[in-house]
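Holo prediction — calcium ion.
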Amino acid sequence: MISFSPYKRCSMLHVRHLPYLALGRPCYSATIICIRSVLITSSTSLVSTYLATMAPLSILLLFAVLVIGTTQGYVAYNFIPRYRGSKYMVSKNAEPFDLAKMNGRCKGSGGYLLQLDSYREYRYVKYELALLRERRLVYTGITDLGSEGRFYNYNDKKPAAYLRWRRRQPDNWRGYEHCVNLTYYGLNDIGCDGNALYICEIPV
Ligand SMILES: [Ca+2]
Ligand SMILES: [Ca+2]
C-alpha cells in the first residue's frame, strides 16, 4: 500500500519553497524534489509491501519443497555432458539398487538406465565417471535376469548392443549376479541389490 506521507511531505516542500518562488527562483525545483520524494517513498513502500507479502510465501514454498523432497525421495545427480545424442546423470548418494525403481526414476527424467551402444559410448561414460572421481559401484541398465548369460537392456528388453567385460567377467558368482555395473576396467555382473549409485542415459 502506498503511504500518503509523501504527499504531506510534498506539501511541506512546496510551502518551504514558496519564499524561493517569491524571490523568482525556478518553480520547477520544488516540483522535481516533490516528484522524487514521492517516487522514493513509493518505491520503498512497494518493496516493503512486496517483502511482507512474499517472505511468508517463500518460507511456505521452501517448506513444501522440503516436505515433497523428503516424501518423494529427492535424488541428487552429477551430470555428464551430452555426447552423440545422449546426456547422462549419475546419482550422488548410494542406496539399495532396484532395477525397476531406478529405471522409473530415469524415465521420470526422460531417459532410462544406461544402455551401451558402442565402444565410443562406453569409453566416454567411463572417462567421465573417472573425472567425477567416482569409485563406488555404479549400476547400468544391463541385466540377464530371466535369461542367464544373455544380457539385455532392462528398459527396452533388447539385447545389449555393446558389452566390454572386465577380465574374468561375467562370472555369475554364486549364481546370483544378474545386474551389471560399470568400472573403469570394464563391465562386471553383480547382484541386483547392492548399495550403489546408478547412471541414467537421457536422449537429447
Ligand atoms: Ca547372471
Ligand atoms: Ca561378476
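READOUT: The first strand starts at residue 77 and ends at 83.
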